[in-house]
Amino acid sequence: xxxxxxxxxxxxxxxxxxxxxxxxxxxxxxxxxxxxxxxxxxxxxxxxxxxxxxxxxxxxxxxxxxxxxxxxxxxxxxxxxxxxxxxxxxxxxxxxxxxxxxxxxxxxxxxxxxx
Length: 115
Hints:
This protein is α+β, with helices and mostly antiparallel strands. The chain has a single domain, classed as 2-Layer Sandwich (GMP Synthetase, Chain A, domain 3), CATH 3.30.300. 52% of the residues lie in helices and 19% in strands. The chain has a three-stranded mixed β-sheet. A hairpin with a 5-residue loop joins strand 1 and strand 2. Helix 1 crosses helix 3. 20% of the residues are buried.
């Protein structure tokens, strides 16, 4: 595992903890950090966020995270010793719901089979 991979994983873990502590009502409890990609110069980090709920809930959660970006950056800086604390860019990750949709399609396909 490379240095940047270790940093990505540590930032992902700490970011998930910070998000759980946020008191913004726009961010639901079912919000998780799927992955974090920190640039090699440690200036920026793209965080892929999964939110359970309808489109409005997802949109509000990302807005809440964007408004808390400064606080999140400050908290990450206190928790992880890095030369620079990255600036966060939050992006909605739809891979979990896409997987659930594929799973439903596969389940539906099995009901149609007859032996």
